[in-house]
Write a structure and sequence with these properties.
The chain is an alpha+beta fold. The chain is 29% helix and 25% strand. The chain has a five-stranded antiparallel β-sheet with strand order 4-3-2-1-5. The model has no long low-confidence stretch (mean pLDDT 83).
Length: 114
């Protein structure tokens, strides 16, 4: 009486998902699905929020630029790409898209101290 412990008659085939020749296409499809479901809506929302932020800049708004300059808006005309901000004793003419964050929308600048 002999017992077969290992079957050597059947050839070993790579099985499962990782051995499939379609695996690279599966990974590409998974990454594409992730991009469409997660990344694309998030970037669209961020662009819309940034456009709304830049469109609502008014005189007296405290802003932070990409360069780290904090100042108050002196001039901001609708339809123009440039705004003028005042930081300490300096007036700067900058592009609207340089504004990274609106810090305060109160509309009133603090009084200058001598």
């Amino acid at each position: 009486m002999t017992f077969l412990l290992f079957a050597q008659d059947a050839p070993q085939q790579p099985g499962g998902l990782f051995g499939s020749p379609m695996f690279p296409f599966f990974l590409i499809g998974l990454m594409l699905l992730f991009w469409v479901v997660v990344i694309l809506p998030m970037s669209r929302r961020q662009k819309k929020e940034q456009a709304d932020l830049l469109a609502n800049i008014k005189r007296g708004t405290k802003v932070l630029t990409n360069a780290g300059i904090v100042g108050f808006v002196v001039t901001a005309n609708d339809g123009e790409d440039e705004i003028v901000i005042r930081s300490e004793d300096t007036k700067l003419r900058i592009k609207r898209n340089v504004v990274a964050q609106v810090l305060d929308v109160s509309g009133a600048e603090p009084a200058k101290q001598a």
